[in-house]
Amino acid sequence: MHTSVTIEPCIQRLLYQILSCKSNRNFGENKAKVFNAVLGFNRSNYKQFIEIIRAGILKYPIVEKSEKGYGEEYTIYMRIKGVNI
Fold first, then answer.
1. 41 close to 18: Cβ distance less than 8 angstroms
2. Burial class (CB in 10 A: 0-12, 13-18, 19+), 11
3. Do 28 and 14 contact (CB within 8 A), yes or no?
4. Which of 35, 39, 49, 50 could form a disulfide with 82 if both were Cys (CB 3.0 to 4.6 A apart)?
5. 39: nearest Cα among 19, 54, 10
6. Paired strand residues for 67
7. At 75, is the secondary structure helix, strand, or coil?
């Protein structure tokens, strides 16, 4: 397992999927609605969401997934407390 993982592209992809309620192909629209309704994260407070993810990366273990031909993949399971809880 690598000791360093580039996380910024992952954060950007996650933000695009869950925080863009209106996109050309509705990509991520339903995820955005759930994140807003359940956790309270949306375009107005996405920076707080990013900071929670960055803190979780340091706190929770990185799990290496099996290679499926797209390069090495990793998963981090973390608890995220929403702003509306």
1. yes
2. middle
3. no
4. 39
5. 19
6. none
7. strand
Task: Tell which residue, 9, 6, 14, has the closest CA to residue 78.
Answer: 14
From residue 82, how far is each of 2, 25, 48, 56 by CA, in Å? 30, 27, 10, 13
Contact 12, 56 (CB under 8 A): no
**29 phi and psi angles, rounded to 5 deg:** -60, -45
The pTM (predicted TM-score) of the whole model is: 0.67
Give the residue among 49, 1, 41, 39 at the shortest CA–CA distance from 21.
41
Q: Distance between CA 85 and CA 83 in Å, rounded?
A: 6
Ramachandran angles phi, psi of 69, nearest 5°: 90, 0
